[in-house]
Amino acid sequence: MRCKTCSIDKPAEGFYASNKTRCKECVKSSVMKNRQENLEKVRAYDRMRGSMPHRVASRSEYQKTNAFAQSHKAAAERWSAKHPERRKASHIVGNAIRDGHLRKTPCHVCGAEKVEGHHPDYSRPLDVVWLCNPHHREIHKTKY
Question: Which terminus of the chain is more exposed, N or C, with fewer CB under 10 A?
Fold first, then answer.
């Protein structure tokens, strides 16, 4: 078969079943070029796509399965092994909150009540800055 874009003869395996006129390499390069030319549109679509009702429902159903439990446990174990200082600091903060030695305060930036502890320095686990989730993500995006 001959590709109409690159004019190279290739075996049938070099073409997608849905497109017998252009080879896989030409289709891939065309898709990548289109994505780069319309990057903002594509990113907006990708963000919207995750919140589609059927996708939200599928994720919710998957989270109830044993496969999810196993993969989530494995991911948590990998994270703990990769970041022992962060895990230790998180446990120390949790225990301090439970025991009443540390108290959550509103977000340091916006004053939101639902907060997470941010450690500027993991070697000082009780030195915590309380941030809402959006501001916590923002800090990590710029700092790390």
Answer: C
Give the start-to-end residue ranges of the domains of the chain: 83-143
Give the list of residues 6+ apart from residue 121 with CB closer than 8 angstroms, or none. 127
Kindly report the pTM of this predicted structure: 0.61
Strands (E), the chain: 15-16, 19-23, 116-118, 129-131
How far is the C-alpha of 66 from the C-alpha of 16, rounded, in Å? 35
Alpha-carbon separation of residue 92 from 3, 89, 98, 101, 117 (angstroms)? 62, 5, 10, 11, 11
Q: Is the pLDDT of residue 136 over 80?
A: yes
Encoding tokens for residue 85?
């200082």
